[in-house]
Amino acid sequence: MRTPHGALLLLFIVACLRGAYSGGGWSRFTSIISFGDSYADTGNLVMWADPVLPGLLLKNLPYGETFFGHPTGRATDGRLVLDFIAEALGLPSMPPYLARGSNFSAGVNFAVVGAPALNLTYLQGLNLTVNPPINSSLHDQLVWFQKLKPSLCNGQGTDCFGSSLFVMGEFGGNDYISFLLSNRTVEQARPYVPQIVDSISRGLERLVQHGAKYIVVADIFPIGCLPAALTKLASPNKVEYDRHGCLKSVNRLGRYHNSLLRQQIKMLRYKYPHTKIIAAEYYKPFLAFLDMPGDFGLNSSTTLCWKYALEEALLITTTSTQGAACRM
Ligand SMILES: *[C@@H]1O[C@H](CO)[C@@H](O)[C@H](O)[C@H]1NC(C)=O
Ligand SMILES: *[C@@H]1O[C@H](CO)[C@@H](O)[C@H](O)[C@H]1NC(C)=O
Ligand SMILES: *[C@@H]1O[C@H](CO)[C@@H](O)[C@H](O)[C@H]1NC(C)=O
Ligand SMILES: *[C@@H]1O[C@H](CO)[C@@H](O)[C@H](O)[C@H]1NC(C)=O
Ligand SMILES: *[C@@H]1O[C@H](CO)[C@@H](O)[C@H](O)[C@H]1NC(C)=O
Ligand SMILES: *[C@@H]1O[C@H](CO)[C@@H](O)[C@H](O)[C@H]1NC(C)=O
Protein backbone atom coordinates (compact mmCIF):
# COMPACT_ATOMS: atom_id res chain seq x y z
CA MET A 1 0.00 0.00 0.00
CA ARG A 2 1.20 3.48 -0.87
CA THR A 3 1.85 6.07 1.76
CA PRO A 4 -1.19 8.34 1.75
CA HIS A 5 -0.43 11.85 0.56
CA GLY A 6 -2.39 13.24 3.51
CA ALA A 7 0.05 11.49 5.81
CA LEU A 8 2.96 12.84 3.75
CA LEU A 9 1.59 16.34 4.12
CA LEU A 10 1.36 15.85 7.85
CA LEU A 11 4.87 14.39 8.09
CA PHE A 12 6.14 17.31 6.08
CA ILE A 13 4.53 19.85 8.38
CA VAL A 14 5.75 18.06 11.48
CA ALA A 15 9.26 17.72 10.01
CA CYS A 16 9.30 21.45 9.21
CA LEU A 17 8.21 22.24 12.71
CA ARG A 18 10.78 19.94 14.29
CA GLY A 19 13.42 21.62 12.12
CA ALA A 20 12.01 24.98 13.08
CA TYR A 21 12.55 24.52 16.76
CA SER A 22 15.62 22.30 16.87
CA GLY A 23 17.83 25.37 17.15
CA GLY A 24 15.64 27.09 19.72
CA GLY A 25 15.98 27.06 23.46
CA TRP A 26 12.89 24.94 24.02
CA SER A 27 11.90 21.53 22.96
CA ARG A 28 8.27 21.48 21.93
CA PHE A 29 5.08 23.33 21.08
CA THR A 30 2.82 23.85 24.03
CA SER A 31 -0.29 24.97 22.17
CA ILE A 32 -2.03 25.19 18.78
CA ILE A 33 -4.16 28.17 17.82
CA SER A 34 -6.32 27.58 14.77
CA PHE A 35 -8.34 29.75 12.38
CA GLY A 36 -10.35 28.39 9.46
CA ASP A 37 -13.54 26.90 8.09
CA SER A 38 -15.11 23.44 7.85
CA TYR A 39 -11.71 21.85 7.35
CA ALA A 40 -10.76 22.96 10.85
CA ASP A 41 -13.91 23.62 12.93
CA THR A 42 -14.05 21.37 15.99
CA GLY A 43 -17.43 22.62 17.19
CA ASN A 44 -17.89 26.38 16.89
CA LEU A 45 -20.68 26.35 14.30
CA VAL A 46 -22.68 23.82 16.26
CA MET A 47 -22.36 25.91 19.41
CA TRP A 48 -23.40 28.97 17.49
CA ALA A 49 -26.29 27.14 15.91
CA ASP A 50 -28.81 27.37 18.71
CA PRO A 51 -31.03 29.21 18.01
CA VAL A 52 -29.51 30.82 14.89
CA LEU A 53 -29.43 27.69 12.73
CA PRO A 54 -31.97 25.22 14.07
CA GLY A 55 -31.97 21.75 12.60
CA LEU A 56 -28.30 21.72 11.65
CA LEU A 57 -27.55 18.16 10.52
CA LEU A 58 -23.97 18.48 11.70
CA LYS A 59 -25.33 17.85 15.18
CA ASN A 60 -26.39 14.32 14.29
CA LEU A 61 -24.83 11.02 13.30
CA PRO A 62 -23.17 10.00 11.02
CA TYR A 63 -21.05 13.04 11.97
CA GLY A 64 -18.49 11.84 14.49
CA GLU A 65 -19.40 8.21 13.98
CA THR A 66 -16.05 6.80 12.85
CA PHE A 67 -13.71 8.08 15.51
CA PHE A 68 -15.44 9.85 18.36
CA GLY A 69 -18.61 7.76 18.38
CA HIS A 70 -20.75 10.90 18.69
CA PRO A 71 -21.15 14.20 16.77
CA THR A 72 -18.48 16.72 17.76
CA GLY A 73 -19.31 19.59 15.42
CA ARG A 74 -16.63 18.52 12.96
CA ALA A 75 -17.89 18.45 9.36
CA THR A 76 -16.74 14.84 9.00
CA ASP A 77 -17.46 11.44 10.47
CA GLY A 78 -13.79 11.14 11.46
CA ARG A 79 -10.95 13.48 12.34
CA LEU A 80 -9.57 16.63 10.73
CA VAL A 81 -6.00 17.26 9.54
CA LEU A 82 -5.74 19.51 12.59
CA ASP A 83 -6.46 16.59 14.93
CA PHE A 84 -3.57 14.66 13.37
CA ILE A 85 -1.22 17.63 13.70
CA ALA A 86 -2.14 17.95 17.39
CA GLU A 87 -1.60 14.25 17.94
CA ALA A 88 1.79 14.34 16.18
CA LEU A 89 2.88 17.19 18.43
CA GLY A 90 1.66 15.42 21.55
CA LEU A 91 -1.11 17.93 22.20
CA PRO A 92 -4.80 17.37 22.94
CA SER A 93 -7.32 18.23 20.24
CA MET A 94 -8.27 21.89 20.33
CA PRO A 95 -11.46 22.92 22.09
CA PRO A 96 -13.67 25.30 20.09
CA TYR A 97 -13.52 28.89 21.29
CA LEU A 98 -17.28 28.95 21.85
CA ALA A 99 -17.04 26.08 24.37
CA ARG A 100 -16.99 28.51 27.26
CA GLY A 101 -15.16 27.34 30.30
CA SER A 102 -12.82 25.07 28.32
CA ASN A 103 -9.17 24.88 29.24
CA PHE A 104 -7.43 26.74 26.39
CA SER A 105 -3.91 26.43 27.76
CA ALA A 106 -2.94 23.76 25.19
CA GLY A 107 -4.83 25.32 22.32
CA VAL A 108 -7.98 26.93 21.06
CA ASN A 109 -9.82 26.70 17.79
CA PHE A 110 -11.56 29.72 16.26
CA ALA A 111 -12.51 27.99 12.98
CA VAL A 112 -16.17 28.01 11.93
CA VAL A 113 -17.81 25.87 9.24
CA GLY A 114 -18.54 28.08 6.22
CA ALA A 115 -16.23 30.92 7.29
CA PRO A 116 -15.08 33.16 4.44
CA ALA A 117 -11.93 35.28 4.19
CA LEU A 118 -13.98 38.42 3.51
CA ASN A 119 -16.50 39.64 6.06
CA LEU A 120 -20.21 38.96 5.93
CA THR A 121 -21.31 42.58 5.62
CA TYR A 122 -18.98 43.09 2.67
CA LEU A 123 -20.01 39.89 0.86
CA GLN A 124 -23.69 40.63 1.40
CA GLY A 125 -23.07 44.13 0.03
CA LEU A 126 -22.00 42.40 -3.19
CA ASN A 127 -25.37 40.61 -3.09
CA LEU A 128 -23.70 37.29 -2.44
CA THR A 129 -25.41 34.45 -0.60
CA VAL A 130 -23.30 33.60 2.43
CA ASN A 131 -24.06 30.28 4.05
CA PRO A 132 -24.31 30.23 7.03
CA PRO A 133 -25.14 33.96 7.25
CA ILE A 134 -23.18 34.62 10.44
CA ASN A 135 -20.23 36.85 11.30
CA SER A 136 -17.54 34.18 11.37
CA SER A 137 -15.01 35.41 8.79
CA LEU A 138 -11.26 35.30 9.22
CA HIS A 139 -11.32 38.77 10.72
CA ASP A 140 -14.19 37.97 13.08
CA GLN A 141 -12.12 35.01 14.28
CA LEU A 142 -9.17 37.36 14.83
CA VAL A 143 -11.41 39.59 16.96
CA TRP A 144 -12.23 36.54 19.11
CA PHE A 145 -8.54 35.82 19.39
CA GLN A 146 -7.81 39.38 20.50
CA LYS A 147 -10.50 39.11 23.16
CA LEU A 148 -9.08 35.85 24.47
CA LYS A 149 -5.44 36.91 24.29
CA PRO A 150 -5.20 38.47 27.77
CA SER A 151 -6.33 35.23 29.38
CA LEU A 152 -4.10 33.11 27.09
CA CYS A 153 -1.11 35.26 27.99
CA ASN A 154 -1.95 35.75 31.63
CA GLY A 155 1.34 35.90 33.55
CA GLN A 156 3.45 34.85 30.56
CA GLY A 157 5.23 38.08 29.70
CA THR A 158 5.76 39.36 26.16
CA ASP A 159 6.80 36.11 24.47
CA CYS A 160 3.55 34.39 25.22
CA PHE A 161 3.25 32.74 21.77
CA GLY A 162 6.89 31.67 21.43
CA SER A 163 5.90 28.00 21.70
CA SER A 164 2.49 28.23 20.03
CA LEU A 165 1.76 26.89 16.59
CA PHE A 166 -0.72 29.03 14.66
CA VAL A 167 -2.65 27.35 11.85
CA MET A 168 -4.29 29.68 9.36
CA GLY A 169 -6.80 28.24 6.93
CA GLU A 170 -7.78 27.16 4.64
CA PHE A 171 -9.65 30.35 3.81
CA GLY A 172 -11.09 31.44 0.48
CA GLY A 173 -13.02 28.35 -0.58
CA ASN A 174 -16.25 29.66 0.93
CA ASP A 175 -15.81 33.08 -0.68
CA TYR A 176 -15.62 31.51 -4.13
CA ILE A 177 -18.51 29.16 -3.42
CA SER A 178 -20.57 32.23 -2.39
CA PHE A 179 -20.03 33.69 -5.85
CA LEU A 180 -21.14 30.49 -7.55
CA LEU A 181 -24.14 29.96 -5.28
CA SER A 182 -25.17 33.51 -6.13
CA ASN A 183 -25.25 32.69 -9.85
CA ARG A 184 -22.03 34.57 -10.62
CA THR A 185 -19.60 33.18 -13.13
CA VAL A 186 -16.00 32.20 -12.52
CA GLU A 187 -15.02 35.26 -14.57
CA GLN A 188 -17.02 37.45 -12.20
CA ALA A 189 -15.30 35.91 -9.16
CA ARG A 190 -11.77 36.17 -10.55
CA PRO A 191 -11.25 39.93 -9.96
CA TYR A 192 -11.88 39.31 -6.23
CA VAL A 193 -9.03 36.80 -5.85
CA PRO A 194 -6.38 39.45 -4.98
CA GLN A 195 -8.71 40.92 -2.37
CA ILE A 196 -9.45 37.52 -0.82
CA VAL A 197 -5.75 36.62 -0.69
CA ASP A 198 -4.98 40.06 0.70
CA SER A 199 -7.47 39.47 3.49
CA ILE A 200 -5.61 36.26 4.43
CA SER A 201 -2.31 38.08 4.22
CA ARG A 202 -3.54 40.87 6.50
CA GLY A 203 -4.74 38.22 8.95
CA LEU A 204 -1.26 36.70 8.95
CA GLU A 205 0.29 40.09 9.64
CA ARG A 206 -2.07 40.58 12.57
CA LEU A 207 -0.88 37.27 14.01
CA VAL A 208 2.75 38.30 13.60
CA GLN A 209 1.98 41.60 15.33
CA HIS A 210 0.40 39.64 18.20
CA GLY A 211 3.65 37.73 18.60
CA ALA A 212 3.13 34.56 16.50
CA LYS A 213 6.46 32.85 15.80
CA TYR A 214 5.25 29.77 13.89
CA ILE A 215 2.39 29.93 11.41
CA VAL A 216 1.17 27.23 9.03
CA VAL A 217 -0.85 28.65 6.11
CA ALA A 218 -3.00 26.29 4.08
CA ASP A 219 -3.85 26.73 0.42
CA ILE A 220 -7.32 25.93 -0.92
CA PHE A 221 -8.60 22.61 -2.18
CA PRO A 222 -9.58 22.07 -5.83
CA ILE A 223 -12.86 23.93 -5.52
CA GLY A 224 -13.96 22.77 -8.97
CA CYS A 225 -14.45 19.31 -7.42
CA LEU A 226 -16.98 20.47 -4.84
CA PRO A 227 -20.58 19.40 -5.47
CA ALA A 228 -21.69 23.02 -4.97
CA ALA A 229 -19.60 23.98 -8.02
CA LEU A 230 -20.41 20.80 -9.95
CA THR A 231 -24.10 21.37 -9.39
CA LYS A 232 -24.24 25.08 -10.01
CA LEU A 233 -22.13 25.02 -13.17
CA ALA A 234 -23.20 21.60 -14.44
CA SER A 235 -22.55 21.40 -18.17
CA PRO A 236 -23.23 18.83 -20.89
CA ASN A 237 -19.93 19.89 -22.45
CA LYS A 238 -17.35 17.29 -21.45
CA VAL A 239 -14.38 19.51 -22.30
CA GLU A 240 -15.23 21.66 -19.29
CA TYR A 241 -14.29 18.77 -16.98
CA ASP A 242 -10.85 17.39 -16.16
CA ARG A 243 -10.06 13.70 -15.88
CA HIS A 244 -11.20 13.74 -12.24
CA GLY A 245 -14.66 14.96 -13.24
CA CYS A 246 -13.96 18.39 -11.75
CA LEU A 247 -14.64 21.73 -13.43
CA LYS A 248 -11.45 23.05 -15.02
CA SER A 249 -12.42 26.72 -14.86
CA VAL A 250 -13.20 26.60 -11.14
CA ASN A 251 -9.99 24.72 -10.38
CA ARG A 252 -8.08 27.34 -12.38
CA LEU A 253 -9.60 29.95 -10.09
CA GLY A 254 -8.38 27.94 -7.10
CA ARG A 255 -4.86 27.65 -8.54
CA TYR A 256 -4.80 31.38 -9.19
CA HIS A 257 -5.71 31.93 -5.53
CA ASN A 258 -2.98 29.53 -4.43
CA SER A 259 -0.33 31.17 -6.60
CA LEU A 260 -1.14 34.64 -5.24
CA LEU A 261 -1.13 33.23 -1.71
CA ARG A 262 2.35 31.77 -2.28
CA GLN A 263 3.57 35.18 -3.45
CA GLN A 264 2.15 36.82 -0.35
CA ILE A 265 3.78 34.21 1.89
CA LYS A 266 7.16 34.89 0.26
CA MET A 267 6.70 38.59 0.80
CA LEU A 268 5.71 38.08 4.45
CA ARG A 269 8.70 35.80 5.11
CA TYR A 270 10.94 38.55 3.82
CA LYS A 271 9.14 41.21 5.84
CA TYR A 272 9.04 39.18 9.08
CA PRO A 273 12.23 37.08 9.19
CA HIS A 274 11.67 36.23 12.87
CA THR A 275 8.42 34.41 12.20
CA LYS A 276 8.49 31.00 10.54
CA ILE A 277 5.71 30.94 7.94
CA ILE A 278 5.07 27.47 6.55
CA ALA A 279 2.94 26.87 3.45
CA ALA A 280 0.78 23.74 3.70
CA GLU A 281 -0.41 22.33 0.42
CA TYR A 282 -3.86 20.78 0.29
CA TYR A 283 -4.55 21.18 -3.43
CA LYS A 284 -2.39 18.37 -4.83
CA PRO A 285 -2.94 15.81 -2.05
CA PHE A 286 -6.68 16.22 -2.60
CA LEU A 287 -6.30 15.29 -6.29
CA ALA A 288 -4.39 12.19 -5.20
CA PHE A 289 -7.50 11.11 -3.26
CA LEU A 290 -9.49 11.34 -6.49
CA ASP A 291 -6.79 9.52 -8.49
CA MET A 292 -6.52 6.56 -6.17
CA PRO A 293 -9.47 6.57 -3.79
CA GLY A 294 -9.01 2.92 -2.88
CA ASP A 295 -5.51 3.61 -1.57
CA PHE A 296 -6.98 5.96 0.99
CA GLY A 297 -9.88 3.81 2.06
CA LEU A 298 -12.37 5.84 0.03
CA ASN A 299 -15.19 4.48 -2.10
CA SER A 300 -14.49 5.36 -5.73
CA SER A 301 -18.18 5.52 -6.63
CA THR A 302 -18.75 8.33 -4.13
CA THR A 303 -15.46 10.25 -4.06
CA LEU A 304 -16.95 13.47 -5.37
CA CYS A 305 -19.75 13.26 -2.82
CA TRP A 306 -17.43 13.84 0.09
CA LYS A 307 -18.57 17.40 0.61
CA TYR A 308 -22.19 16.54 -0.04
CA ALA A 309 -22.84 15.77 3.59
CA LEU A 310 -21.47 19.14 4.60
CA GLU A 311 -23.70 21.02 2.23
CA GLU A 312 -26.60 19.00 3.45
CA ALA A 313 -25.64 20.00 6.98
CA LEU A 314 -25.59 23.66 6.07
CA LEU A 315 -28.60 23.81 3.83
CA ILE A 316 -30.47 21.60 6.27
CA THR A 317 -32.82 20.22 3.64
CA THR A 318 -31.60 17.99 0.87
CA THR A 319 -31.99 19.20 -2.67
CA SER A 320 -32.39 17.03 -5.70
CA THR A 321 -29.39 18.59 -7.47
CA GLN A 322 -26.90 17.13 -5.02
CA GLY A 323 -27.58 13.63 -6.23
CA ALA A 324 -26.66 14.78 -9.72
CA ALA A 325 -23.27 15.96 -8.53
CA CYS A 326 -22.57 12.65 -6.87
CA ARG A 327 -23.37 10.64 -9.98
CA MET A 328 -20.72 12.38 -12.06
C1 LIG B 1 -5.29 23.18 31.71
O1 LIG B 1 -4.50 22.29 30.93
C2 LIG B 1 -3.11 22.34 31.26
C3 LIG B 1 -2.35 21.43 30.30
O2 LIG B 1 -3.05 21.11 29.16
C4 LIG B 1 -2.91 21.92 32.70
O3 LIG B 1 -1.53 21.99 33.02
C5 LIG B 1 -3.71 22.83 33.61
O4 LIG B 1 -3.63 22.37 34.93
C6 LIG B 1 -5.17 22.87 33.19
N1 LIG B 1 -5.86 23.87 33.97
C7 LIG B 1 -7.03 23.65 34.55
C8 LIG B 1 -7.63 24.79 35.32
O5 LIG B 1 -7.59 22.57 34.49
C1 LIG C 1 -15.47 44.34 6.04
O1 LIG C 1 -14.64 44.32 4.89
C2 LIG C 1 -14.57 45.57 4.22
C3 LIG C 1 -13.77 45.37 2.95
O2 LIG C 1 -12.57 44.70 3.19
C4 LIG C 1 -13.95 46.60 5.16
O3 LIG C 1 -13.90 47.84 4.52
C5 LIG C 1 -14.78 46.69 6.42
O4 LIG C 1 -14.17 47.55 7.35
C6 LIG C 1 -14.96 45.32 7.06
N1 LIG C 1 -15.90 45.42 8.14
C7 LIG C 1 -15.69 44.86 9.33
C8 LIG C 1 -16.75 45.04 10.34
O5 LIG C 1 -14.69 44.19 9.55
C1 LIG D 1 -27.32 44.47 -5.08
O1 LIG D 1 -28.71 44.41 -5.33
C2 LIG D 1 -29.36 45.66 -5.18
C3 LIG D 1 -30.88 45.42 -5.27
O2 LIG D 1 -31.17 44.58 -6.35
C4 LIG D 1 -28.82 46.64 -6.23
O3 LIG D 1 -29.43 47.89 -6.05
C5 LIG D 1 -27.32 46.77 -6.04
O4 LIG D 1 -26.77 47.58 -7.06
C6 LIG D 1 -26.64 45.42 -6.07
N1 LIG D 1 -25.25 45.58 -5.71
C7 LIG D 1 -24.26 45.00 -6.36
C8 LIG D 1 -22.88 45.28 -5.88
O5 LIG D 1 -24.45 44.27 -7.32
C1 LIG E 1 -22.11 41.33 11.38
O1 LIG E 1 -21.27 42.36 11.87
C2 LIG E 1 -21.58 43.65 11.34
C3 LIG E 1 -20.53 44.62 11.81
O2 LIG E 1 -20.20 44.41 13.14
C4 LIG E 1 -22.99 44.03 11.77
O3 LIG E 1 -23.32 45.30 11.25
C5 LIG E 1 -23.95 42.98 11.25
O4 LIG E 1 -25.27 43.26 11.72
C6 LIG E 1 -23.57 41.60 11.72
N1 LIG E 1 -24.41 40.62 11.06
C7 LIG E 1 -24.96 39.59 11.70
C8 LIG E 1 -25.84 38.69 10.88
O5 LIG E 1 -24.77 39.37 12.87
C1 LIG F 1 -29.95 31.59 -9.26
O1 LIG F 1 -30.64 31.14 -10.40
C2 LIG F 1 -31.67 30.19 -10.09
C3 LIG F 1 -32.21 29.64 -11.39
O2 LIG F 1 -32.40 30.67 -12.33
C4 LIG F 1 -32.74 30.87 -9.25
O3 LIG F 1 -33.76 29.96 -8.92
C5 LIG F 1 -32.09 31.38 -7.96
O4 LIG F 1 -33.03 32.09 -7.18
C6 LIG F 1 -30.91 32.27 -8.29
N1 LIG F 1 -30.22 32.54 -7.03
C7 LIG F 1 -29.76 33.76 -6.73
C8 LIG F 1 -29.08 33.89 -5.41
O5 LIG F 1 -29.88 34.72 -7.46
C1 LIG G 1 -19.61 2.40 -2.53
O1 LIG G 1 -20.73 3.26 -2.64
C2 LIG G 1 -21.81 2.70 -3.39
C3 LIG G 1 -22.87 3.79 -3.60
O2 LIG G 1 -23.24 4.37 -2.39
C4 LIG G 1 -22.34 1.48 -2.63
O3 LIG G 1 -23.40 0.89 -3.38
C5 LIG G 1 -21.21 0.48 -2.44
O4 LIG G 1 -21.66 -0.60 -1.66
C6 LIG G 1 -20.02 1.13 -1.77
N1 LIG G 1 -18.89 0.22 -1.72
C7 LIG G 1 -18.20 -0.01 -0.62
C8 LIG G 1 -17.04 -0.96 -0.76
O5 LIG G 1 -18.48 0.52 0.45
UniProtKB/TrEMBL annotation:
Q: Keywords of this protein's UniProt record, alphabetized?
A: Glycoprotein, Hydrolase, Signal
Q: Which InterPro entries match?
A: GDSL (IPR001087), SGNH_hydro_sf (IPR036514), SGNH_plant_lipase-like (IPR035669)
Any Pfam family from its record, for instance, is Lipase_GDSL
User: Thylakoid as a keyword?
Assistant: no
Q: Which residues form the signal peptide?
A: 1-22
Gene Ontology MF terms: hydrolase activity, acting on ester bonds
Q: Which family does it belong to?
A: Belongs to the 'GDSL' lipolytic enzyme family.
Q: What is the protein named?
A: GDSL esterase/lipase
Q: Which organism is it from?
A: Triticum turgidum subsp. durum (Durum wheat)
